[in-house]
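Q: Structure for this?
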Amino acid sequence: MGGYAFYVWGSYGVTFALLAVEVVQLLKRKRETQT
Amino acid sequence: MTTQSIRWFWYASPQTFFPLAGKIARVCTLLAIIFSISGLYVGLFVAPTDATQGEAYRIIFIHVPAAWMSMFLYVVMASWAAVGLAMNTRLSAMMARALAPTGALFTFIALWTGSLWGKPTWGTWWVWDARLTSELILLFLYFGFIALQASIDERRRADRAGAVLAIVGVVNVPIIYYSVQWWNTLHQGASVSFTRAPSMAKTMFLGMILMALAFWMYSIAVAMTRVRCMIAEEER
């Protein structure tokens, strides 16, 4: 990444981690409503 | 009233909308996966290295779509809230509530990635200029909407109060969009607009549009799933 790896992967990593957290929380909530 | 217009209101009821929301969520999940894989491929492997910013510019494929979504979702959220306020429809208020956390998330992502982009290109993580400050206010508006909804026990009252806040906050969206024109700012102007050709390489533009579509589909899928949870929790 031409010396910018921290900034580029810091952006992509946090973004997809946060989206994953939202999806996991939502799936958990969905499971709870079905029981 | 004609039969056609009655069909329109068929899905205004949470119970009839519930199965449709499930179908929309499934289709949009699939599209989000396809668009994000193709967008990441174009953005990380096909798009050329930028002449002035080197590889650091690749943050654009997350930053710009996230910033677009943060503003777009707020307008959609406020529109649903306004419909709920005017017509007293439960589903509209639910849609507004379902969009708020995702909107806040994309606002945070826009700020986070902007900060990580600002450090190598501007030499600073943050400046209190018009674009960054107004986007931060947008994040607080989302938080305010969520907090206000959560602080009032009676559902209808919470929805009405939230709707007023959401509608008043819409004024911030054009301020964010035009901030780079109205004030002197470190932030660059728009590279993409409806009135002229994008000022970037075709593959860069393609990667950005694919990621924007991916975030768009993701937002619909998540909002539909969340609204289904709300219907299941509140209408039983």
